[in-house]
Specification:
By secondary structure, the chain is α/β, with parallel strands linked by helices. It has a single domain, classed as 3-Layer(aba) Sandwich (Rossmann fold), CATH 3.40.50.1820. It has an eight-stranded mixed β-sheet with strand order 1-2-4-3-5-6-7-8, sandwiched between helices. Helix 4 links the parallel strand 5 and strand 6. It starts with a helix and ends with a helix.
């Protein structure tokens, strides 16, 4: 094996840790509960896949990087049983949603589409739950002071969320590097990449099995999936993030912040800083889990969310 190929192969294994960092696959395309909202602009329409079940107070669940609605597979039924209307949305470029070959994959681009989605369904007094990348999108939504949108969100739940400038994991650096990101993502079979990613993202590797690996790897085979991940990785921490994060103190929406004590992707000190900046927030650490409390510790995650929503 040549030195260049060996380097690219190592890079591919490293980027596997980011390709499914949120460790999520997608519900099946023939799932009767999956619907599509056509959003975007007149110049470019985007179809976003979502599930909408229940008839109570609405809760919108937003997944993280490399993820989809599948990450909420344990949380969704528990919230439905508790009498909520639960909506899970696949962000642009992920899960069953469209993956166009454009460059509009920043948290602001995603937030604009989610805002359209909220209007599309006419959602009011909405609780927004965001994990990782989805948490960053939720924060952008919460900062929207447009009069017509100011009171749409009643409560905010941020789970191991991006929020501040931080050291970029090596795999993200690889994805952000021209040519190397594209080459690395093709050298290792997706199922192998996914299994490696799960081992990196989970604290307890016994919590996932081969069925999960297949589910997680599925959306990564879609046309445009690699492009979406690379573009998202390159834009996930926007240049104006310091200015954006300086405005978190203006968010008056009641917020619950949940973090795993063994999160190697977005470390707990980020959650503590976010708690200090959000004036109406509470902070909880969940023990013995990595980057995915909704998957590794779903019962405790649901308990915390339900307690918060009942206040």
């Amino acid at each position: 094996m040549t030195s260049m190929k060996r380097t690219a192969t190592v890079c591919a294994l490293l980027l596997a840790g980011m390709a499914v960092l949120s460790c999520s696959g997608a519900y099946q395309r023939d799932d009767a509960h999956v619907r599509y909202a056509t959003l975007g602009s007149a110049a470019q329409k985007i179809r976003l896949a979502y599930r909408d079940q229940g008839t109570g107070k609405p809760i919108l669940l937003l997944h993280g990087f490399g993820a989809s609605s599948y990450t909420w597979r344990h949380v969704e039924p528990a919230l439905l049983t508790s009498g909520y209307r639960v909506l899970t949305l696949d962000l642009k470029g992920f899960g069953l949603s469209d993956k166009p070959f454009d460059e509009d994959y920043s948290i602001f681009d995603q937030a604009a589409l989610v805002s359209q989605f909220i209007d599309y369904l006419g959602l009011k007094k909405l609780s927004v739950v965001g994990h990782s990348l989805g948490g960053g999108v939720a924060l952008v939504l919460a900062l929207d002071k447009t009069p017509a949108k100011r009171n749409r969100i009643a409560k905010l739940v941020l789970i191991d969320s991006i929020a501040y400038a931080q050291n970029i994991p090596l795999a993200f650096s690889i994805l952000r590097t021209p040519i190397l990101g594209e080459i690395s993502s093709r050298l290792v079979p997706l199922e192998v990449q996914t299994r490696i990613a799960l081992r990196l993202a989970y604290y307890d590797n016994s919590k996932f099995d081969s069925r999960d690996v297949k589910q997680y790897a599925g959306p990564l085979k879609d046309k445009g999936s690699r492009h979406a991940m690379i573009q998202t990785a390159r834009q996930i921490l926007p240049e104006n993030l310091p200015e954006l994060s300086s405005r978190y103190k203006t968010i008056q929406i009641p917020a619950l912040i949940i973090w795993c004590d063994h999160d190697k992707v977005i470390k707990p000190y980020i959650g503590l800083r976010l708690h200090n900046d959000l004036p109406n927030s509470t902070f909880h650490i969940i023990r013995a889990c990595g980057h995915l409390p909704q998957e590794e510790k779903p019962q405790r995650t649901v308990e915390l969310v339900q307690e918060f929503l009942k206040r």
